[in-house]
Amino acid sequence: MRSARLRELVNLVLVGMLTAIGFLSVYTARQNQISSTSLVYAGIFLALFAVAHVGVRAGLPNADPWLLPLAALLSALGLTEIYRLQPTLARDQSVWIVIGLIGFLGVIFLLGDHRRLASYKYSLATVAVGLLLLTMVVGTTVNGARLWLRIGGVQVQPGEFVKLLLVIALAGYLRENREVLTYARRRVLGVGIPAARHLGPLALMAAVSLGVLAVMNDLGSALLLFGIFLSMIYVATGRHLYTVLGLGIFAAGSLLVYKAIPHVRERFSIWIDPWSHAHTSGYQVVQSVEAIADGGVFGTGLGRSLQVIGHGQTIIPAVQTDGIYAAWSDETGLAGAAGLLLIYLLFAYRGFKIATLADDSFSKLLACGLTFSFTLQAFLIVGGITRLIPLTGVTLPFVSYGGSSIVSNFLILALLLMVSDRAAARRVT
Q1: Predicted model pTM
Q2: Which residues pair with 314 in a beta bridge?
Q3: Which among 25, 213, 252, 278 could disulfide-bond with 222, CB atoms 3.0 to 4.6 Å apart, if both were Cys?
Protein backbone atom coordinates (compact mmCIF):
# COMPACT_ATOMS: atom_id res chain seq x y z
CA MET A 1 0.00 0.00 0.00
CA ARG A 2 2.94 2.33 -0.62
CA SER A 3 0.99 4.16 -3.31
CA ALA A 4 -1.80 4.92 -0.81
CA ARG A 5 0.59 6.39 1.72
CA LEU A 6 2.36 8.30 -1.05
CA ARG A 7 -0.98 9.82 -2.14
CA GLU A 8 -1.60 10.78 1.46
CA LEU A 9 1.78 12.50 1.73
CA VAL A 10 1.38 14.34 -1.59
CA ASN A 11 -2.05 15.60 -0.55
CA LEU A 12 -0.68 16.78 2.79
CA VAL A 13 2.02 18.75 0.97
CA LEU A 14 -0.69 20.36 -1.17
CA VAL A 15 -2.60 21.24 2.01
CA GLY A 16 0.58 22.82 3.38
CA MET A 17 0.89 24.94 0.25
CA LEU A 18 -2.74 26.06 0.53
CA THR A 19 -2.13 26.92 4.17
CA ALA A 20 0.83 29.10 3.18
CA ILE A 21 -1.28 30.90 0.57
CA GLY A 22 -4.10 31.42 3.07
CA PHE A 23 -1.87 32.81 5.80
CA LEU A 24 -0.04 34.97 3.26
CA SER A 25 -3.35 36.45 2.06
CA VAL A 26 -4.50 37.20 5.60
CA TYR A 27 -1.13 38.59 6.67
CA THR A 28 -0.92 40.81 3.60
CA ALA A 29 -4.44 42.14 4.21
CA ARG A 30 -3.73 42.80 7.89
CA GLN A 31 -0.22 44.24 7.65
CA ASN A 32 -0.23 45.67 4.11
CA GLN A 33 3.04 43.92 3.36
CA ILE A 34 4.31 40.55 2.18
CA SER A 35 6.22 38.51 4.73
CA SER A 36 7.76 35.08 5.07
CA THR A 37 5.89 34.61 8.35
CA SER A 38 3.10 32.77 6.54
CA LEU A 39 5.64 30.23 5.26
CA VAL A 40 6.77 29.59 8.84
CA TYR A 41 3.18 28.99 9.96
CA ALA A 42 2.53 26.69 7.02
CA GLY A 43 5.78 24.81 7.66
CA ILE A 44 4.88 24.16 11.28
CA PHE A 45 1.38 23.04 10.26
CA LEU A 46 2.77 20.68 7.61
CA ALA A 47 5.33 19.29 10.07
CA LEU A 48 2.58 18.41 12.56
CA PHE A 49 0.60 16.48 9.99
CA ALA A 50 3.78 14.92 8.60
CA VAL A 51 4.28 13.39 12.06
CA ALA A 52 0.69 12.11 11.91
CA HIS A 53 1.42 10.69 8.44
CA VAL A 54 4.48 8.87 9.74
CA GLY A 55 2.38 7.47 12.58
CA VAL A 56 -0.27 6.23 10.15
CA ARG A 57 2.39 4.77 7.88
CA ALA A 58 3.89 2.86 10.82
CA GLY A 59 0.71 1.80 12.62
CA LEU A 60 -1.95 1.63 9.90
CA PRO A 61 -0.14 1.03 6.60
CA ASN A 62 -3.33 0.00 4.76
CA ALA A 63 -5.56 2.82 6.02
CA ASP A 64 -7.63 5.09 3.80
CA PRO A 65 -5.27 7.67 2.18
CA TRP A 66 -7.81 10.50 1.92
CA LEU A 67 -9.23 11.06 5.38
CA LEU A 68 -6.09 12.50 6.99
CA PRO A 69 -5.50 15.06 4.18
CA LEU A 70 -9.19 16.05 4.28
CA ALA A 71 -8.99 16.56 8.05
CA ALA A 72 -5.77 18.55 7.58
CA LEU A 73 -7.43 20.71 4.93
CA LEU A 74 -10.43 21.46 7.15
CA SER A 75 -8.08 22.27 10.05
CA ALA A 76 -6.03 24.55 7.79
CA LEU A 77 -9.10 26.44 6.57
CA GLY A 78 -10.35 26.87 10.11
CA LEU A 79 -6.98 27.96 11.45
CA THR A 80 -6.56 30.48 8.64
CA GLU A 81 -9.99 32.02 9.28
CA ILE A 82 -9.46 32.10 13.04
CA TYR A 83 -6.07 33.78 12.52
CA ARG A 84 -7.81 36.36 10.36
CA LEU A 85 -10.35 37.03 13.15
CA GLN A 86 -8.04 36.98 16.16
CA PRO A 87 -4.40 35.79 16.03
CA THR A 88 -4.28 34.86 19.74
CA LEU A 89 -7.15 32.42 19.25
CA ALA A 90 -5.29 30.89 16.30
CA ARG A 91 -2.35 30.27 18.62
CA ASP A 92 -4.63 28.52 21.11
CA GLN A 93 -6.25 26.51 18.32
CA SER A 94 -2.81 25.38 17.18
CA VAL A 95 -2.13 24.04 20.67
CA TRP A 96 -5.40 22.08 20.58
CA ILE A 97 -4.49 20.67 17.17
CA VAL A 98 -1.23 19.40 18.67
CA ILE A 99 -3.14 17.82 21.57
CA GLY A 100 -5.63 16.33 19.12
CA LEU A 101 -2.85 14.79 17.04
CA ILE A 102 -1.26 13.34 20.18
CA GLY A 103 -4.60 11.75 21.02
CA PHE A 104 -4.88 10.58 17.41
CA LEU A 105 -1.53 8.79 17.56
CA GLY A 106 -2.25 7.51 21.06
CA VAL A 107 -5.42 5.76 19.89
CA ILE A 108 -3.59 4.19 16.93
CA PHE A 109 -0.66 2.80 18.93
CA LEU A 110 -2.18 2.14 22.36
CA LEU A 111 -5.57 0.72 21.37
CA GLY A 112 -4.18 -1.63 18.75
CA ASP A 113 -7.47 -3.18 17.64
CA HIS A 114 -10.63 -1.06 17.65
CA ARG A 115 -12.80 -4.16 18.14
CA ARG A 116 -11.61 -4.35 21.74
CA LEU A 117 -13.88 -1.39 22.47
CA ALA A 118 -16.97 -3.57 21.93
CA SER A 119 -16.30 -5.32 25.24
CA TYR A 120 -16.62 -2.03 27.13
CA LYS A 121 -19.93 -0.91 25.61
CA TYR A 122 -21.82 -0.69 28.90
CA SER A 123 -18.94 1.01 30.69
CA LEU A 124 -18.62 3.59 27.93
CA ALA A 125 -22.38 4.20 27.92
CA THR A 126 -22.26 4.74 31.69
CA VAL A 127 -19.43 7.25 31.31
CA ALA A 128 -21.36 9.08 28.59
CA VAL A 129 -24.50 9.37 30.71
CA GLY A 130 -22.37 10.36 33.71
CA LEU A 131 -20.75 13.19 31.76
CA LEU A 132 -24.16 14.48 30.70
CA LEU A 133 -25.49 14.33 34.25
CA LEU A 134 -22.39 16.06 35.58
CA THR A 135 -22.81 18.84 33.01
CA MET A 136 -26.48 19.21 33.92
CA VAL A 137 -25.64 19.57 37.62
CA VAL A 138 -22.43 21.62 37.74
CA GLY A 139 -22.02 22.81 34.16
CA THR A 140 -21.38 26.43 33.21
CA THR A 141 -24.14 28.24 31.32
CA VAL A 142 -23.06 30.19 28.22
CA ASN A 143 -25.59 32.01 26.02
CA GLY A 144 -28.46 30.27 27.76
CA ALA A 145 -27.15 26.71 27.27
CA ARG A 146 -25.38 24.64 29.92
CA LEU A 147 -22.64 23.02 27.86
CA TRP A 148 -19.36 23.45 29.69
CA LEU A 149 -17.41 22.03 32.59
CA ARG A 150 -14.67 24.19 34.04
CA ILE A 151 -11.61 22.18 35.07
CA GLY A 152 -9.03 24.49 36.59
CA GLY A 153 -8.61 27.29 34.08
CA VAL A 154 -9.80 25.20 31.11
CA GLN A 155 -13.37 24.85 29.86
CA VAL A 156 -14.32 21.45 28.43
CA GLN A 157 -17.44 20.62 26.43
CA PRO A 158 -18.32 17.04 27.46
CA GLY A 159 -20.94 16.71 24.71
CA GLU A 160 -18.15 16.46 22.13
CA PHE A 161 -16.89 13.28 23.81
CA VAL A 162 -20.33 11.95 24.70
CA LYS A 163 -21.18 11.56 21.00
CA LEU A 164 -18.02 9.46 20.50
CA LEU A 165 -18.73 7.27 23.51
CA LEU A 166 -22.35 6.86 22.41
CA VAL A 167 -21.37 5.65 18.93
CA ILE A 168 -18.96 3.05 20.35
CA ALA A 169 -21.49 1.85 22.94
CA LEU A 170 -24.30 1.61 20.40
CA ALA A 171 -22.10 -0.25 17.92
CA GLY A 172 -21.32 -2.86 20.59
CA TYR A 173 -24.93 -3.12 21.79
CA LEU A 174 -26.48 -3.37 18.32
CA ARG A 175 -23.98 -5.97 17.20
CA GLU A 176 -25.33 -8.29 19.90
CA ASN A 177 -29.03 -7.34 19.75
CA ARG A 178 -29.78 -6.59 16.12
CA GLU A 179 -31.59 -9.92 15.63
CA VAL A 180 -34.02 -9.45 18.53
CA LEU A 181 -34.70 -5.87 17.41
CA THR A 182 -35.53 -7.16 13.93
CA TYR A 183 -37.74 -10.03 15.08
CA ALA A 184 -41.47 -9.16 15.28
CA ARG A 185 -43.04 -10.52 18.47
CA ARG A 186 -46.55 -9.41 17.44
CA ARG A 187 -48.25 -7.36 14.73
CA VAL A 188 -50.24 -4.16 15.21
CA LEU A 189 -52.12 -2.81 12.17
CA GLY A 190 -49.96 -5.03 10.01
CA VAL A 191 -46.70 -3.67 11.46
CA GLY A 192 -44.34 -6.09 13.18
CA ILE A 193 -43.53 -5.00 16.73
CA PRO A 194 -40.65 -6.54 18.72
CA ALA A 195 -40.91 -7.41 22.41
CA ALA A 196 -41.49 -4.38 24.62
CA ARG A 197 -38.28 -4.95 26.59
CA HIS A 198 -36.24 -4.52 23.42
CA LEU A 199 -37.81 -1.11 22.79
CA GLY A 200 -36.37 0.12 26.09
CA PRO A 201 -33.16 1.54 24.57
CA LEU A 202 -35.23 3.60 22.11
CA ALA A 203 -37.32 5.10 24.90
CA LEU A 204 -34.21 5.64 27.06
CA MET A 205 -32.37 7.45 24.25
CA ALA A 206 -35.38 9.67 23.63
CA ALA A 207 -35.50 10.47 27.35
CA VAL A 208 -31.79 11.29 27.47
CA SER A 209 -32.00 13.55 24.40
CA LEU A 210 -35.06 15.36 25.71
CA GLY A 211 -33.34 15.69 29.08
CA VAL A 212 -30.41 17.37 27.36
CA LEU A 213 -32.83 19.69 25.60
CA ALA A 214 -34.85 20.48 28.73
CA VAL A 215 -32.15 20.78 31.39
CA MET A 216 -29.15 21.94 29.35
CA ASN A 217 -31.18 24.03 26.87
CA ASP A 218 -29.00 22.53 24.14
CA LEU A 219 -31.00 21.82 21.00
CA GLY A 220 -27.88 20.96 18.98
CA SER A 221 -26.64 18.18 21.26
CA ALA A 222 -30.15 16.76 21.61
CA LEU A 223 -30.58 16.55 17.83
CA LEU A 224 -27.07 15.16 17.40
CA LEU A 225 -27.38 12.42 20.02
CA PHE A 226 -30.82 11.29 18.91
CA GLY A 227 -29.86 11.47 15.23
CA ILE A 228 -26.87 9.21 15.89
CA PHE A 229 -29.08 6.73 17.70
CA LEU A 230 -31.77 6.58 14.99
CA SER A 231 -29.25 6.26 12.16
CA MET A 232 -27.35 3.43 13.83
CA ILE A 233 -30.44 1.45 14.80
CA TYR A 234 -31.73 1.78 11.24
CA VAL A 235 -28.43 0.59 9.79
CA ALA A 236 -28.41 -2.35 12.22
CA THR A 237 -32.00 -3.49 11.66
CA GLY A 238 -33.06 -2.01 8.33
CA ARG A 239 -36.50 -1.28 9.82
CA HIS A 240 -38.30 2.00 9.18
CA LEU A 241 -40.39 1.37 12.29
CA TYR A 242 -37.65 2.55 14.63
CA THR A 243 -37.04 5.71 12.64
CA VAL A 244 -40.72 6.65 12.50
CA LEU A 245 -41.37 5.69 16.12
CA GLY A 246 -38.25 7.48 17.33
CA LEU A 247 -39.01 10.66 15.43
CA GLY A 248 -42.56 10.59 16.76
CA ILE A 249 -41.42 10.23 20.36
CA PHE A 250 -38.81 12.96 19.96
CA ALA A 251 -41.25 15.32 18.22
CA ALA A 252 -43.88 14.86 20.95
CA GLY A 253 -41.32 15.39 23.68
CA SER A 254 -39.85 18.40 21.91
CA LEU A 255 -43.31 19.99 21.75
CA LEU A 256 -43.66 19.62 25.51
CA VAL A 257 -40.18 21.08 26.06
CA TYR A 258 -41.00 23.92 23.65
CA LYS A 259 -44.03 24.85 25.72
CA ALA A 260 -42.18 24.56 29.03
CA ILE A 261 -38.74 26.08 28.32
CA PRO A 262 -38.55 29.79 27.31
CA HIS A 263 -35.04 29.44 25.85
CA VAL A 264 -36.23 26.77 23.40
CA ARG A 265 -39.20 28.91 22.34
CA GLU A 266 -36.84 31.82 21.76
CA ARG A 267 -34.62 29.70 19.49
CA PHE A 268 -37.59 28.75 17.31
CA SER A 269 -38.86 32.33 17.26
CA ILE A 270 -35.48 33.56 16.04
CA TRP A 271 -35.42 30.85 13.38
CA ILE A 272 -38.84 31.83 12.01
CA ASP A 273 -38.24 35.59 11.98
CA PRO A 274 -34.82 36.80 13.15
CA TRP A 275 -35.42 40.31 11.79
CA SER A 276 -38.07 40.91 14.44
CA HIS A 277 -35.25 40.57 16.99
CA ALA A 278 -32.49 42.01 14.79
CA HIS A 279 -30.92 44.11 17.56
CA THR A 280 -31.36 41.60 20.39
CA SER A 281 -31.64 37.80 20.33
CA GLY A 282 -31.73 37.56 16.52
CA TYR A 283 -28.64 39.71 15.99
CA GLN A 284 -26.27 36.78 15.43
CA VAL A 285 -28.45 35.10 12.79
CA VAL A 286 -29.14 38.38 10.96
CA GLN A 287 -25.46 39.33 10.82
CA SER A 288 -24.53 35.82 9.68
CA VAL A 289 -27.04 35.87 6.83
CA GLU A 290 -25.90 39.34 5.76
CA ALA A 291 -22.26 38.26 5.84
CA ILE A 292 -23.04 35.31 3.56
CA ALA A 293 -24.92 37.60 1.17
CA ASP A 294 -22.04 40.11 1.23
CA GLY A 295 -19.64 37.46 -0.04
CA GLY A 296 -21.33 37.17 -3.44
CA VAL A 297 -19.94 34.52 -5.76
CA PHE A 298 -16.20 34.75 -5.09
CA GLY A 299 -16.05 36.67 -1.82
CA THR A 300 -14.24 39.76 -0.63
CA GLY A 301 -10.91 37.98 -0.14
CA LEU A 302 -9.27 36.53 2.96
CA GLY A 303 -8.78 39.23 5.55
CA ARG A 304 -10.66 41.86 3.55
CA SER A 305 -14.27 41.58 4.75
CA LEU A 306 -15.71 43.71 7.54
CA GLN A 307 -15.61 41.13 10.33
CA VAL A 308 -13.68 42.90 13.09
CA ILE A 309 -14.28 46.44 14.34
CA GLY A 310 -12.56 48.45 17.07
CA HIS A 311 -10.64 46.70 19.87
CA GLY A 312 -10.97 43.29 18.24
CA GLN A 313 -14.75 43.13 18.59
CA THR A 314 -16.40 41.00 15.90
CA ILE A 315 -19.61 41.96 14.13
CA ILE A 316 -20.97 38.40 14.31
CA PRO A 317 -21.16 37.23 17.96
CA ALA A 318 -19.17 34.04 18.62
CA VAL A 319 -17.94 34.17 15.02
CA GLN A 320 -14.98 31.88 15.75
CA THR A 321 -17.34 29.09 16.85
CA ASP A 322 -20.98 29.32 15.74
CA GLY A 323 -20.46 31.83 12.93
CA ILE A 324 -17.25 30.72 11.27
CA TYR A 325 -19.10 29.37 8.24
CA ALA A 326 -20.64 32.82 7.70
CA ALA A 327 -17.23 34.50 8.00
CA TRP A 328 -15.70 32.02 5.56
CA SER A 329 -18.58 32.56 3.12
CA ASP A 330 -18.14 36.33 3.34
CA GLU A 331 -14.47 36.16 2.39
CA THR A 332 -14.56 33.32 -0.15
CA GLY A 333 -18.09 33.70 -1.51
CA LEU A 334 -20.40 31.02 -2.80
CA ALA A 335 -17.45 29.27 -4.41
CA GLY A 336 -15.56 28.93 -1.13
CA ALA A 337 -18.68 28.04 0.87
CA ALA A 338 -19.61 25.32 -1.61
CA GLY A 339 -16.01 24.09 -1.63
CA LEU A 340 -16.04 23.74 2.14
CA LEU A 341 -19.25 21.73 2.02
CA LEU A 342 -17.75 19.57 -0.72
CA ILE A 343 -14.87 18.67 1.60
CA TYR A 344 -17.36 17.47 4.20
CA LEU A 345 -19.18 15.45 1.55
CA LEU A 346 -15.90 13.84 0.49
CA PHE A 347 -15.15 13.00 4.13
CA ALA A 348 -18.63 11.48 4.47
CA TYR A 349 -18.17 9.49 1.25
CA ARG A 350 -14.88 8.01 2.43
CA GLY A 351 -16.30 7.26 5.87
CA PHE A 352 -19.37 5.45 4.55
CA LYS A 353 -17.23 3.59 2.02
CA ILE A 354 -15.09 2.35 4.92
CA ALA A 355 -18.29 1.15 6.60
CA THR A 356 -19.37 -0.81 3.53
CA LEU A 357 -15.94 -2.45 3.18
CA ALA A 358 -15.67 -3.50 6.84
CA ASP A 359 -16.12 -7.24 7.27
CA ASP A 360 -17.61 -7.41 10.78
CA SER A 361 -20.79 -5.86 12.12
CA PHE A 362 -19.14 -3.91 14.95
CA SER A 363 -16.73 -2.21 12.54
CA LYS A 364 -19.54 -1.44 10.07
CA LEU A 365 -21.72 0.11 12.77
CA LEU A 366 -18.78 1.99 14.30
CA ALA A 367 -17.64 3.52 10.98
CA CYS A 368 -21.21 4.36 10.00
CA GLY A 369 -21.99 5.98 13.36
CA LEU A 370 -18.77 7.99 13.47
CA THR A 371 -19.24 9.24 9.91
CA PHE A 372 -22.88 10.11 10.46
CA SER A 373 -22.15 12.01 13.69
CA PHE A 374 -19.42 14.00 11.94
CA THR A 375 -21.63 14.81 8.95
CA LEU A 376 -24.77 15.56 10.99
CA GLN A 377 -22.83 17.97 13.19
CA ALA A 378 -21.64 19.89 10.12
CA PHE A 379 -25.21 19.97 8.79
CA LEU A 380 -26.64 21.25 12.09
CA ILE A 381 -24.37 24.28 12.31
CA VAL A 382 -24.41 25.16 8.59
CA GLY A 383 -28.19 24.67 8.51
CA GLY A 384 -28.56 26.90 11.54
CA ILE A 385 -26.43 29.70 10.11
CA THR A 386 -28.31 29.62 6.80
CA ARG A 387 -31.71 29.38 8.60
CA LEU A 388 -32.52 25.95 7.18
CA ILE A 389 -33.08 24.81 10.77
CA PRO A 390 -32.95 26.60 14.16
CA LEU A 391 -29.44 27.70 15.10
CA THR A 392 -27.75 25.23 17.43
CA GLY A 393 -24.66 25.50 19.59
CA VAL A 394 -22.59 22.76 17.94
CA THR A 395 -19.27 23.44 16.25
CA LEU A 396 -18.21 22.99 12.63
CA PRO A 397 -15.89 19.93 12.79
CA PHE A 398 -12.16 20.73 12.49
CA VAL A 399 -12.97 24.33 11.46
CA SER A 400 -14.58 26.06 14.45
CA TYR A 401 -12.49 27.25 17.37
CA GLY A 402 -12.64 24.90 20.35
CA GLY A 403 -10.36 22.38 22.01
CA SER A 404 -12.98 19.75 22.89
CA SER A 405 -14.25 19.67 19.31
CA ILE A 406 -10.78 19.41 17.79
CA VAL A 407 -9.65 16.60 20.10
CA SER A 408 -12.85 14.54 19.72
CA ASN A 409 -12.77 14.83 15.94
CA PHE A 410 -9.17 13.63 15.78
CA LEU A 411 -10.22 10.61 17.88
CA ILE A 412 -13.04 9.96 15.39
CA LEU A 413 -10.50 10.19 12.57
CA ALA A 414 -8.20 7.68 14.27
CA LEU A 415 -10.98 5.12 14.72
CA LEU A 416 -12.12 5.47 11.11
CA LEU A 417 -8.57 4.91 9.89
CA MET A 418 -8.26 1.84 12.13
CA VAL A 419 -11.44 0.35 10.64
CA SER A 420 -10.24 1.09 7.10
CA ASP A 421 -6.80 -0.41 7.77
CA ARG A 422 -8.25 -3.70 8.97
CA ALA A 423 -10.72 -3.88 6.08
CA ALA A 424 -8.00 -3.18 3.49
CA ALA A 425 -5.60 -5.66 5.10
CA ARG A 426 -8.25 -8.39 4.95
CA ARG A 427 -8.83 -7.71 1.25
CA VAL A 428 -5.11 -7.95 0.54
CA THR A 429 -4.81 -11.31 2.31
Answers
A1: 0.93
A2: 308
A3: 213
